[in-house]
Amino acid sequence: MAYDKQLPKKSDDISGWYNALVLQAELAEYGPAKGTMILRPYGYAIWELVQKKLDAAFKANDVENAYFPIFIPESLLQKEKNHLEGFSPELAIVTIGGGEVLQEKLVVRPTSETIMYASYSKWVKSWRDLPIMINQWNSAVRWEKRTYLFLRTTEFLWQEGHTAHATHNEALATRQWAMDTYAQLFHDSYSLPGYIGLKSATETFAGAKSTMTYETLMPGGKALQSATSHDLGQNFAEAFDIKFQDKEGKTELVWQTCWGLSTRSLGGLFMVHGDDKGLRLPPELAPIQAIILPIRATDELQAYINQTKKDLLDIGVRVKIDDRDGESLGFKINKWELKGVPIRIEIGEKERAEGKVKIVRRDTGESAMVDTNQLQKTISELLVKIQKNLFDQAEIALAEHTHTSGDYEDFKQQMSDSKGFIKANWCGDSHCEDTIKSETTATTRCKTDSTVEGNCIYCSKPHAAEWYFAQSY
């Protein structure tokens, strides 16, 4: 891989920059089938860190992991009408198996509500069987017409949580807990601020009663739906006959939720934090948090380098030594800047003689000479500072690209010029929503938490709630 190959400038060609970055940093590459993606070890290692953090949070709330088949009988998908209609354009369907035409077509999993809830209907009999709190780590297939590495691929990795409860209040509390968990992950690990709110009826997950979303801002002013949490009400419970006998002996339908986050969120991570040199990974999600680069290593210097690595391993830093032959120091610096490693440590005979190491921050480029007896403390503090700095930069960008509009002509001009999120009042009428989308390509991203009402940005009806609008990635 030519790590010294120049990336397109992010500010000049964000699409070309992003594609080149994903390929050159060895995060992923195109799969042989149209629209598919091969996750390379470095990219998958980032996803593993996401898994580790989310999995711990899920299990702390008594969510259990399970696995259901990737093939779903077509008859199951047809049980919930809105669900089927919502996914029909994206379905991949198997019609032949073992050289024979199948008696019933099999849908390749676009999402797992139908196949999981067929089992829930068998497992739930009494209030004692509730709640069911199950999560899957798996892949899903949605036949996308336009694909984009990580951000939109035919097959993607994700987690999908599915719960069943005795009361609607319990379900709503779980839906909120899931969104709060995602918000904490994006804040503390991705360093990505965002807006949380309810989706409009048009944008609600197919078959759900309502949907909560975490919306993040991408460079160029477009929004990325980064995680969702849904209140399914009793729609699927009725379709799949998921009933239980309550404490009074009365038969009731369960209340359900589902919630998910996918590898799409990694695309947002790369796009927001990257710069003209490549990735800038937040330390919490960096497979390698510190890279040690030897300068003309001798046996004596190698022992010094090995001790430096051990000191960092002892405090839990993910550290690696790059002593690969045939690569100059400059080449290695470019390589690890491209890969976004938060801290670079350079060690030569000069550093060894002085009992120091040279440390360089990836996020700011700042360098310093540090005594080895201060190394652990310095690196620990720097990792925290880098994590916060990336969040602060993203938060400033989000604030600078969030606007307010009370006039439709102004709204259209802003969406054409500066883009970003626009806060505007909307009456809730789908005609207004559809017209705004057709004329500006902007959609309602989520409802704000403001209780102040105004006139609809399009039709001027009073008592309209405030919403975030943006163009979608």
Defining key terms:
473 residues, BirA Bifunctional Protein, domain 2, Rossmann fold, Translation Initiation Factor IF3, seven-stranded mixed beta sheet, globular
Q: How would you briefly describe this protein structure?
A:
By secondary structure, the chain is of the alpha+beta class. It is built from 14 helices and 23 strands.
What can you see in these coordinates?
With 473 residues, this protein is α+β, with helices and mostly antiparallel strands. The chain has three domains: 14-273, Bira Bifunctional Protein, Domain 2 (BirA Bifunctional Protein, domain 2, 2-Layer Sandwich), CATH 3.30.930.10; 283-395, Rossmann fold, CATH 3.40.50.800; 402-471, Translation Initiation Factor IF3 (2-Layer Sandwich). It is 36% helix and 27% strand. The protein has 14 helices and 23 strands. The protein has helices spanning 14-24, 41-60, 74-77, 81-87, 113-123, 168-190, 235-240, 264-273, 299-313, 329-338, 349-354, 375-400, 408-417, 430-440, and strands at 28-30, 37-39, 64-65, 71-73, 93-97, 100-108, 132-141, 155-165, 195-198, 210-217, 223-233, 243-245, 251-253, 255-262, 290-294, 319-321, 343-347, 356-361, 367-371, 402-404, 421-426, 442-447, 465-471. Strands 3-7-8-14-11-10-9 form a seven-stranded mixed sheet, with helices on both faces. The chain has a five-stranded mixed sheet with strand order 16-15-17-18-19, with helices on both faces. Strands 20-21-23-22 form a four-stranded mixed sheet. α2 (41-60) packs across α6 (168-190). The longest helix is centred in the last third of the chain and has 26 residues, at 375-400. It is globular. The two termini are 29 Å apart. The relative contact order is 0.11. The mean pLDDT is 96.
